[in-house]
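Sample entry (236 residues):
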Amino acid sequence: MREQAFTCTIFRPLVTMSYYPIFLELEKKTALVVGGGRVAQRKIETMLEYGAVIHIVSKDLTDKLKALVEAGDIYHVGTEFTDAQLDKAFLVIAATDDKRLNHEISEKARDKGLLMNAVDQPADCNFIVPSIVKRGDLLIAISTSGKSPAFAKDIRKKLELQFGGEYGAFLALMGRVREEVLAKGFSQDENSRIFNKIVSADVPAALARGDLEAVKSCLTDLLPEGVYIEDILNHI
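Predicted structure, serialized as tokens:
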């Protein structure tokens, strides 16, 4: 029997922009959002959670955005985009349904060295917004580099089930533990040993059960003398 030739085509992904993951402090920073629809609303609601000062530009606003303006939580600075609106901005989000306008905003913002995101127009962005899981001070950001926001959302939903509110409580506890241990002046190696032992003890599982006695027992076994465990537990 004559052998049949077999060929295999190797998939070579397109060369695209790669993104450097980073977390920004937005407290009291001005975010200019151009657009007043549901997409703009979602972006604004998220940024408000992180303390951003929102300036919005749009002829029309969703009912929720109107309510935020009336309450003084965000500022409606115009119905049409102008260059002057960029002057106080730290970052800019173009969320209109006009791609040409979004592109124009992007060019002007980036000329000023501003952080710029144009919704669903990756070429007009110098940053993209990840899908987020937040549990207190635990922040997990998921990105597909713009290839599939739907897949990022799917991963986020799975992680939300895996990481419950107990992880926020655990980080509040570890913040206090870290302060107390570092104040004792141990060596860096000893500090690392203590912290790693606590992390490996799966304290979040005990917190999820509401079993503070198990948490207390774990800390008693692992923390050095002179660290006041009751004070630490009171913190959570």
